[in-house]
């Protein structure tokens, strides 16, 4: 006859590693998971915060690059705008500001260079006819004017980390060929 209310331990359940009912297995391991979570939580939080900081750095780097590209795009419209440093600065600042950033964190410099392009190789030359009497003409190839804009922004970390500076300067450069009318 079967005994009611009592679990029978069979050879099959013992081989599978199942303990008999009512042996108190939970009592011996009750705090192990809590200790593991307590030990891993600081590591997981450090990884999370590090990932957020890395993402913020990449975001600022992209915005600085876009500001440099906006300034170069403004200067590349024609020869007059290629030397308009105030307009190039404004275009870069507006792009940076439109993305929710503080313009005081952005520094923009621009230069214009000229030369002769012959089959993809550009030979530099002075842009002004006062210093270069052949400016605007080339013996071989065609005359090109390039505008180069460098934007530098500051990334400020949310937290201070040992051995890592609290702010990092991000610098990006964009160069475009100026459209000649």
Compact description:
With 181 residues, the protein is of the alpha+beta class. The chain is built from four helices and four strands; from the N terminus they run ααααββββ. The longest helix is centred in the first third of the chain and has 44 residues, at 32-75.
Strand order of the largest sheet: 2-1-3-4
SSE pattern, N- to C-terminal: HHHHEEEE
Number of helices: 4
Strand content: 15-25%
User: Based on DSSP secondary structure assignment, what is the total number of beta strands?
Assistant: 4
Contiguous uncertain segments of 5+ residues? none
Mean pLDDT: 86
Give the helix proportion (percent range). 25-40%
Structural class, judged by helices and strands? alpha+beta
Distance between the termini: 106 Å
Choose one word for the global shape. elongated
- Total separate domains: 1
Describe this structure in words.
With 181 residues, this protein is α+β, with helices and mostly antiparallel strands. The chain has 4 helices and 4 strands. Strands 2-1-3-4 form a 4-stranded antiparallel beta sheet. α3 (32-75) runs antiparallel to α4. The protein starts with 10 loop residues before the first helix and ends with a strand.
SSE inventory with pairings:
Layout: H1 11-15, H2 25-28, H3 32-75, H4 85-98, E1 106-118, E2 121-125, E3 142-156, E4 167-177
Helix pairs in contact: 3-4
